[in-house]
Amino acid sequence: MIAIDDAGSNQANKMPSGEEIKAAAEGLVDLIKLRTYPFGMKLFEDSEEMLSIKGLRTPSDGKFFTTCQLVTQVRTAGFTLGIVQDNLRPGSSCGANIGLEAIPDDVGSGEKMNGVWFGNQEAAAEHQRQMPRVKSGRYSGLAASPLRSARLDPPDICLFYASPGQMILFINGLQYHNYKRYDFTMTGESACADSWGRALSTRKTSLALPCYAERRYGGVADDELLMACPPDEFVTGV
Fold first, then answer.
1. pLDDT digits (tens, 9 = 90+) for 77-90
2. Are 121 and 103 in contact (CB under 8 A)?
3. What per-residue confidence (pLDDT) applies to 9?
4. What's residue 59's pLDDT?
5. Which helix (H) or strand (E) holds 40?
6. pTM value?
7. How many CB atoms within 10 Å of residue 174?
8. What's the pLDDT tens digit per position in 4-59?
9. CA-CA distance, 201 to 198, in Å (whole number)?
10. What order of strands is seen across the sheet that includes strand 157-162?
11. Rounded CA gap, 142 and 189, in Å?
């Protein structure tokens, strides 16, 4: 199952296997000296299928993640983690960005971010309307795992954190044989929408400038950018 919406369904490139993606991830780490593991994400319509993944961990009863925290544990500790909506911190709207829930009313209306990241409710609501997201109603779970484990075979998207200097080398690789211009988006706060939100919903290669929440809750360093792309482009870039 490839987790894409209609916007990305016209891409029919051959999907590399988990082992091919694993080899590409190992090559990327060696070539540009990444600090943390490249990892994959995969959405599941049936959460029971997700729970059958070898080595998968889920939050303990009563414990919650933000997706920023989930990603950090995957890319630094090497865990394979799975979540359903009940595992996500209430009121965080993380689930809405990956399609596990509808946009909460107080978030979509702009009420929640009014006076926090935006000076008025209208600007906060417009921010929500323009965020790239996976549509709700189809998926019930999301798993993330280091690509070196090949446990998501294949993942829906491949991701890694890198410095600007490392990132341009990867983009050079993407453009080496078949050049195309890449246009990326800038949401501002809730920048996960520009990385895994956009890549999961469109299967377009997406580069994001991590936001305050990723730095506070996910421990992202000030010199790190986040790349998210479909597996076929990830392998091409390496």
1. 999 999 999 999 88
2. no
3. 37
4. 87
5. strand 39-44
6. 0.91
7. 19
8. 343 343 344 688 999 999 999 999 999 999 999 999 999 999 999 999 999 999 98
9. 5
10. 56-57, 80-83, 141-146, 39-44, 157-162, 225-229, 206-208
11. 22
Q: Is 35 helix (H, G, I), strand (E, B) or coil?
A: coil
Length of the chain: 238
Q: In Å, what is the CA distance from 157 to each residue of 17, 106, 147, 165, 234?
A: 13, 30, 10, 22, 9
3: three-class secondary structure by DSSP: coil
CA distance 55 to 146: 12
- Residue burial 192-230, b: 16+ Cβ < 10 Å; e: rest: bbbbbbbbbbbbbbbbbbbbebbeebbbbeeebbbbbbb
Where do we find the tokens 């990305």?
Answer: 8
Residue type, 211: C
Distances in Å between the Cα of 51 and the Cα atoms of 82, 120, 160, 170 are: 7, 42, 24, 33
Which residue in the block uniquely carries the two structure tokens 């690789």?
173
**What is the token pair recorded at 148?**
């070196």
Rounded to 5 degrees, what are φ and ψ at 146? -60, 140
Task: Provide the H-helix boundaries in 105-162.
Answer: 105-108, 121-130
For the record, the structure tokens of 58 come out as 């889920």
